[in-house]
Amino acid sequence: MDQPNPLKTSYRRDARAGLRDIAPAAIAAIPIGLLFGAVAITKGLSPAEVALMSALVFAGGAQFAAIESWVSPAPILALAFGTFLINVRHVLMGASLSPKIGLSRTEKFVGFFFMTDESWALSERRALDRPVTGAYWAAMAVTLYANWVVSTTLGAVLGSFLGDPARFGADFAFTALFIGLVAGFGRSRVTLVTVGVSAAVSALVHHFIGAPWHVASGALAGIAAAYLAAGKDARS
Amino acid sequence: MSMDTTTLLAILAMAVVTYFTRVAGLLVADRLALTGRAKAAFDAIPPAVLVAVIAPTALTTGWAEALAAAITAFVAFRLPLLATIIVGVVSVVVLRHFM
């Protein structure tokens, strides 16, 4: 009876590791979620619509991009295309993580609904020296998901009381978060070239052509730059 | 608790597209064995996309945002994620006040 079940022990340990690893990103996401809800309200969405979007889409970058250019009635095709451009990275993220994560095929189709930049990046890092288990993934997924749905909805409800988000610099939290995440990919020569080219092309396209094209063109330019910078004989 | 039909359809479309991108990788994973330059390009996707999303805000909004982004990038290599965000937000507030 007192004998600890080794399976259960490792399950708990991995879940705790997931919680510990995701905590900074989850805490950072709270002001960002509040901000998202508050901004969405100013664009004419109701708190219920904000909650539904966060629960079904669950993708901060795509949601912010959608809200930034939100008009009524909503341009469905343009929003779907913009969402695809911003989220198409998931295809390669999923392909990369799939063989490294300890989930059955069916579990992956459920579990990958919760894939975010943060949980993906943390899992890739963990996979370098330890197995990425379902418990580890689930702990991160549930934490981030509940956190995002609650904070965005709360932001929508409180929106009118918070006033202008720019007053607190809260509008910059998203930018700062992304800079922090990019730094996590290190500063090898190829990464620096990627970041520089992506930033330059995105800023130029945004200035001369406009959103949402800066995301796809900047990203593609950065990827092409990495391909060229790596050289023909690059080792993996 | 109001729901606009067009808004609802837009949210559903965004949700379907996003779920598709999240699981599409599962369908191609077995056929993706990348090496060399292709691997480097593949590995560059996350930073390239993240940077492309924020570059206009960081670089072309104004001097306060550009400077705050530079400060954030500087501390991002030295501090944990949450501290990085706090430094970024505080510096943008201070810089906007003086610029």
Any idea what the shape of chain B is? flat
Residue-averaged pLDDT of chain A: 87
Contiguous runs where pLDDT drops below 50 for at least 5 residues of chain A: none
Return the average pLDDT of chain B rounded to an integer. 89
Radius of gyration of chain A: 19 Å
Distance between the termini of chain B: 42 Å
Ranges of chain B with pLDDT <50 over ≥5 residues? none
Written as H for each helix and E for each strand, in order along the chain, the element string of chain B is: HHHHH
Strand portion of chain A, in percent?
Answer: under 5%
Content-based structural category of chain B: mainly alpha
Structure classification of chain A? mainly alpha
Globally, the shape of chain A reads globular
What is the element string of chain A, with H for helices and E for strands?
A: HHHHHEHHEHHHH
Describe the secondary structure blueprint for this structure.
The complex is a heterodimer of chains A (236) and B (99).
Chain A: H1 6-42, H2 47-56, H3 60-68, H4 76-87, H5 89-97, E1 101-102, H6 105-111, H7 117-127, E2 132-133, H8 134-162, H9 173-183, H10 189-208, H11 213-230
Parallel strand pairs in A: 1-2
Helix pairs in contact in A: 1-3, 1-8, 2-8, 3-4, 5-7, 10-11
Chain B: H1 5-28, H2 36-43, H3 45-60, H4 63-76, H5 81-98
Annotation keywords:
heterodimer; A: 236 residues; mainly alpha; 2 domains; two-stranded parallel sheet; 2% strand; B: 99 residues; 5 helices; flat; Brnchd-chn_aa_trnsp_permease (chain A)
Summarize, please.
Chain A has 236 residues and is mainly alpha-helical. Chain A is built from eleven helices and two strands; from the N terminus they run αααααβααβαααα.
What can you tell me about this protein's structure?
The complex is a heterodimer of chains A (236) and B (99). Chain A is built from 11 helices and 2 strands. Chain A folds into 2 domains: 6-184, no CATH class; 186-236. Helices cover 73% and strands 2% of the residues of chain A. In chain A, α1 (6-42) runs parallel beside α3. Chain A is mainly α and 236 residues long. The model of chain A has no long low-confidence stretch (mean pLDDT 87). Chain B is mainly alpha-helical. Chain B has one domain (5-98). Chain B is built from 5 helices and no strands. Chain B has helices at 5-28, 36-43, 45-60, 63-76, 81-98. Chain B starts with a helix and ends with a helix. The model of chain B has no long low-confidence stretch (mean pLDDT 89). At the A-B interface, α1, α2, α3, α4 and α5 of A face α1, α2, α3, α4 and α5 of B. Chain B: Pfam families: AzlD. Chain B: The chain crosses the membrane at residues 6-28, 40-60, 66-95. Chain B: It comes from Microvirga puerhi.
